[in-house]
Amino acid sequence: MANTPNPGTSAGAVADKFPNQIKYIVWNEACERYSYYGMRSILVIFLVQYLMLDKNVATSDYHLFAGACYLFPVLGAYISDRFWGKYKTIILLSLVYCLGHGFLAVFEDSQIGFYCGLGLIALGSGGIKPCVSAHVGDQFKPSQKASLQKVFDLFYFMINFGSFFSTMITPWTLQAYGPGVAFGIPGILMFLATIIFWMGRHEYVHVPPTGSNPHGTGKVLLSAIKNMGAGEGFLNGARKDHPEDAVEAVKSAFNVGKIFIAVTVFWALFDQHGSSWVLQAREMNLDVNIFGWQTTLLPSQIPALNPIMVMILIPIFTFGIYPACEKIFKTEMTPLKRMGAGMFVTAFSFVLVGIYQYILDGGEQISVLWQVLPFLIITMAEVMVSITGLQFAYTQAPRAMKSTIMSMWLLTVFFGNMITAYIAKINVFDGGNFFMFFAGIMGIFAIIFVWIAKNYKMQDHMEGSLKA
Length: 468
Prior knowledge:
Shape: globular
Strand content: under 5%
Strand order of the largest sheet: 1-2
Distance between the termini: 8 Å
Order of helices and strands: HHHHHHHHHHHHHEEHHHHH
Radius of gyration: 22 Å
């Protein structure tokens, strides 16, 4: 249970201060993200250079794995919400996660063993995702609402802190020491992440699981179908068998789901900075001169631009760009407005990489430093869409569905990666046309998102049960 505030402490000071246990969660996240992004930074290169897979097959398998990591949140959220609670779910599935890293290190020469390791990592990583982000929000009282956005900013900062160092170091480790060491070190960091999280066990606010729920989502939906026509709207018929709050919780999930549908294409583009953009970098001139420092970069090191840019852009957007836009345009920069703008920005980044690919396909080699601009643009989009989406998902979720709606947000990443895996597999679009295709569908879905968002009614579901 969280510590009770000192009675002499002012309410304002309590509201502005992060709970003490937050340090365990954010440092756990930094180490866990080091392990995940370190492994993923060399995955497509390993598949092509060591397992000798075709480039399109490697791209497809990369996105199938990335998608699986965002499918298992459904299982993790269900177990957490109904049976184990967030803390127990995170601890047990983190051990599965560690085992998966061990498989990667041991089975570097076996495609079957290696892919089994990827499966275990997908289960462990995916299973804990909705629980960790929801667990962060659980540590705050309603009076600390102003601190919630700041802690999600910090949470995302730590994700990228771990990601930056792993993306810079792990490709070099692969080249210098081989796959066993390169995949083994991230496994050690994942074990360290688990220990750090365990250390805070006595300080966490533990929101108990709801247990077997007679008014769960599935039962409400079945009742709505059975009583269809008993009132206006699909879910209204469920009120004959279920209480108002259960029906309203499912209705909230449906409304949020409509918003999330349009976000899937964002992830179809964004996650390519670790696959198709890396493969494009292999075709570029990797010998660079940076302010007089001559060096040769590795293709899989280029994505390290993303986390370092995120760490820089988070405070710039939070304290500079958003307030400036509100002052200039005389309108609040709501989460939905931020996300909509971010989608249009994402499309523009793919227009640039598409142009680069046309130049490369024409036989002219250009410096890999040209990728800095599209990385900056897509990172701006990430700040607007991904960070905001985490906050949006938590605040729109009723208590009984916190992890469930967080997992719905993560499912958008799954479906986005499935889109990319399919397009890469069928190999319909070649060269620059591949990137321009994704830019086009992103623009279309950005318009759809804006249209859906205009009719969405914002909710406020800060966890009201966390009073000390």
